[in-house]
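Folding problem:
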Amino acid sequence: MPDAHNHASILHTIGCFSGFSAVALGAFGAHALGKRLANGPDSATKLSNWRTAAAYHLIHTLAILYVAGRLDRQPGVGTAGVQRSSLPGYLFGLGNLLFSGSIYLLVLDTRRAYSRILGPTTPLGGLAYLAGWATLYWS
């Protein structure tokens, strides 16, 4: 079973990848997305949705890195304690994937080919974020 340092290392890697992608996707939204949407009928809403996804993505990336840093300072914690302490970071990562990821894809899906699949995914990501904050409190 991985110890606190191993979980911290995994979450640090997830956090760094998440931070990189949050900045890259935020920059894409700020500089290129408007041209891609070509002032369509709902382009303002889509740009707003993209900004929301990018903001949540970046905020929860910082939360992942916080959990990783906190774990790295908990040597000698038992297996149950490590799992409980690392769970918020994994939930924040899952939230980024489901919440922000589905919004990014919904904005890019101009033909609405995947909206029936992606639409219900967004609230599941929101629930993962909420569960992450709740488990962070109890860890």
